[in-house]
User: Fold this.
Amino acid sequence: MLTLVEARSILTRSSGYLKSVCSHSLNPYRGCSLGRSLCGVACYVQHNRFLTQGRPWGSFLEGKSNAGSLYLAEIGRERRRGPVSIFMSSATDPFPPQERTTGITRSVLEAMVHQPPDLLIVQTHSDLVSEYTQLLLQLPTRVHISIESDRDRLPGLPAPACSVAKRMEAGRTLRRAGLMTVACLSPLIPIREPEPFFERLKESFDAVILDHFVGGDGTSNGTRTRVTAFPAAIESVQPGASRLEYLHQMVGVARRHFPGRVGVGPEGFAARWLK
Ligand code: SF4
Assistant:
C-alpha cells in the first residue's frame, strides 16, 4: 500500500472552511491507510476525485519523502506574506502506522523546530501522536484528536483503526505534558452515555469541537455522506441522530462540562475561544 514519492510542494494555502481555521494545510501523505476503518466510511476526502484518481479510499498511501526539506524551502516565502498557521492534516492522517517506518511526519516536525510556524494544529485519529510529545512541545502546537463518540463500533461498519480508549489515553499523555488538546466529535456518532462521556473527556482534553455530517462534509445538507452507509448506521443505534437536532442536543451537554470551550461546526475548528 505504501509508496514513496517526491512532492513538488508541501504548504497549501487554505481554501473553503479551512480558511477560517488556518492560513495553510500540510499533508505529509497522500491517501490514508486508515481509510478502510470506521472513520473512512464518512471521510469527506474520499470524494476528492483529483486526489483518489479512481482508487478506492484506504487502498493507497503515498509518503512525501521530501516533506521536511520542502517545508524549509517554502516557509520563509510564506512567512513574508503574513503569519503562517498550519493545519496538519486536512486530507490524510499525519500518524498512520506506516509513519513508524517512514518518519515523514517526524521529519516535518523536526524541520518546524528550526523554523516554526506561528501555530500548528495537529489533527489525528491515531494514538501514535503521543509518541511525538517532546517534538510537539517545542512548537506552538494544539493537538486535535478525533473521538466521535464513546462507541467503538457501529453495526455493519468496520472497526476503528485506534480504539476510543487509546485515543483518550493519548490525549491525557499530551495534556499532562503541557500541550493544549482538543477532542473532535466529528462527524458526531451517537453517544451511548453523554454525561459520563463528556465528564471523562475533561481528563484528556482542554476543549471539544462537535460537528455533524450535515453541514460538516463540505455540502450544506450532507449529500456526500448520505451516499455512504454512515447515516443508516447511526440511525440504527439512535433514531434521529442523522438530523442536526441531535448535534444541538449534544452541544447542550458538552457546554455543561466544557463551559466556554465548545466549538460547533466546521468553523469551530478555528477554536478562537481557546486562549
Ligand atoms: S484518518 Fe482522517 S483522512 Fe484518514 S480516513 Fe480517517 S477521517 Fe479520513
